[in-house]
Design a protein that fits this description.
Elements: E1 3-8, H1 14-27, E2 34-37, E3 45-50, H2 54-61, E4 70-78, H3 86-96, E5 109-113, E6 116-117, H4 124-138, E7 142-143, E8 150-157, E9 160-166, H5 188-198, E10 208-211, H6 218-226, E11 231-236, H7 239-251, E12 257-260, H8 266-269, E13 275-280, H9 294-304, E14 309-319, H10 322-330, E15 335-342, E16 351-357
Parallel strand pairs: 5-7, 5-8, 6-8, 10-11, 10-13, 11-12, 13-14
Antiparallel strand pairs: 1-3, 1-4, 2-3, 4-9, 8-9, 14-16, 15-16
Helix pairs in contact: 3-4, 5-6, 9-10
The structure holds S-adenosylmethionine.
Length: 359
């Protein structure tokens, strides 16, 4: 028996989803997982197949830390007239013809949702509406936007339409981080990617990890979830963030050394400590302070890190200001780029940059 699932993530992280699922499958004794990044060219999607039951593959996929949603594909077709509103009638008819086992019981309620990319004379709301009508053309089912049993996803990319049952209700990347949830909280799966790329397997787990701009501690929590034995430390100039990060760690049953401190003075704040891994999501907005440039911020961070890191340390950062970052890096040859990849995040395109300490 072959099962197939399609999985959403941020653009730029698709290969990590496949890699993580392979690792989960191998650990669970499920052999032969095949994966595809960007099936049909769809950015932000990965597809996986395994010689397993759909339930077994779904149980593995629902444990992914790198993904947002898991979808069981039901149908895919080409729109005959993607540049006309006639496409909506085709979508309704195709959905009405589908046999979706999840929608078979009389009492189930459902909702239809859609994402759409490309040039079309209709919106994603139009697609969701006609898909919902298609389900009800086949058999009356209650529509409920909040208290639904089944979510049918109908996604349109240019002239291609895919239909699937979404197995995740909330995005897997929306972690319950604890009582403190500031607006700049990093998506859980991007935090996972920053950590994973700093220490990809088979590199051993980190022992001492620092986030010098820790905010609510998302990266510290994610690090503890991935490597329970790691000792985590975090710094932030905001007292509210420091107490929030400590509260979040405590709520998850973890401890960490979290201090009020300026990352530009990390050598003083963390004097005597030696970190083998530094992972962070530095500030990127306007509020970094008067007379402060991003080149200076990164430069002072690079100048401070050698005193508090091990000679083989890795530094993994989510960088929005790439020009400033590169300029600071040129001036601090103690670090070289090991890996860089662009990720789509909230409509912006920051880069995950992993550095090796070389001096
Ligand atoms: C993008 S947020 C980090 C968010 C964090 N990853 C989370 O998910 O909660 C950047 C953080 O850097 C802090 N910050 C700004 N300038 C700083 C500095 N010079 N040293 C240390 N922290 C600083 C801000 O207070 C903010 O909490």
């Amino acid at each position: 028996m072959t099962a197939r699932l399609e999985i959403t993530t941020n653009r730029g992280l698709e290969d990590l989803v496949v890699e993580e699922l392979r690792r989960l499958a191998a650990a669970a004794g499920v052999p032969g997982v095949r994966g595809e990044h960007r099936p049909h060219g769809l950015a932000g999607w990965a597809a996986v197949e395994a010689d397993a039951t759909p339930e077994v593959l779904a149980a593995l996929a629902l444990r992914l830390r790198s993904a947002h949603h898991v979808v069981r594909p039901v149908h895919a077709f080409t729109l005959a007239a993607p540049d006309s509103r006639d496409a909506l009638a085709q979508i309704q008819a195709e959905v009405a013809a589908l046999d979706v086992p999840e929608l078979a019981p009389d009492h189930v309620s459902f909702r239809a949702t859609s994402t759409r990319t490309g040039q079309h004379p209709f919106s994603s709301e139009d697609v969701a509406r006609v898909a919902g009508a298609g389900v009800r053309d086949r058999a009356w089912r209650a529509v409920s936007l909040k208290a639904y049993d089944v979510e049918l996803r109908v996604d349109v990319r240019d002239d291609r339409c895919t239909v699937g049952v979404q197995l995740t209700r909330e995005a897997l990347s929306r972690r319950r981080t604890g009582p403190y949830l500031p607006h700049m909280t990093l998506q859980g799966n991007v935090a996972w990617a920053l950590l994973h790329l700093a220490r990809p397997e088979p590199a051993g787990p980190p022992r001492e990890l620092l986030d010098p701009f820790c905010g609510g501690g998302t990266l510290l929590l994610e690090a503890k979830a991935r490597w329970p034995g790691v000792r985590v430390a975090g710094g932030d100039t905001s007292e509210g963030s420091v107490s929030g990060a400590l509260a979040n760690l405590a709520a998850a049953g973890h401890t960490g050394d979290v201090r009020v401190g300026d990352a530009r003075e990390a050598d003083r704040v963390w004097a005597g400590r030696r970190f083998d891994t530094v992972v962070s999501n530095p500030p990127f907005g306007k509020r970094i302070g008067p007379n402060m440039s991003f080149t200076k911020l990164f430069g002072e961070l690079f100048a401070a890190l050698p005193a508090i890191t091990t000679p083989d340390a890795r530094v993994s950062l989510l960088v929005y200001k790439r020009g400033a970052f590169n300029q600071a890096l040129r001036e601090h040859p103690a670090f070289t780029v090991r890996h860089a990849r662009v990720v789509e995040l909230g409509g912006l395109h920051p880069v995950i940059i992993v550095l090796d300490r070389v001096g």
